[in-house]
Specification:
Largest sheet: 3 strands, antiparallel
Strand order of the largest sheet: 1-3-2
Mean pLDDT: 90
Low-confidence stretches: none
CATH topology: Arc Repressor Mutant, subunit A
CATH class: Mainly Alpha
Order of helices and strands: HEHHEHE
Strand content: 5-15%
Structural class: alpha+beta
Amino acid sequence: MNDELEEAFLNVAAQLWLKSTEPIRSEVIYAQLRDAGLRIPDGAMNSLYRSLMQDSIVGGTLLLSDEAQRTHGGFVITWIDPSYLPGAIPE
């Protein structure tokens, strides 16, 4: 897994989570990461999301679109482990 992408992904997701009460769509995270200059290979966002879900860091749903999964990940985040949010107290 690309540590730089994972760190940037979690940072963007946490910031979006704190600013809104709505689920976070993958294309929003993808756009912010690309705007920040990250190069994201096809499939990387989907793989990262699945890994973070498996580790219970995020929760949500996958979209059925193969194109969405290939490019921006094709997911919607509906939950983030609070310990990954800014200001969280480390255990």
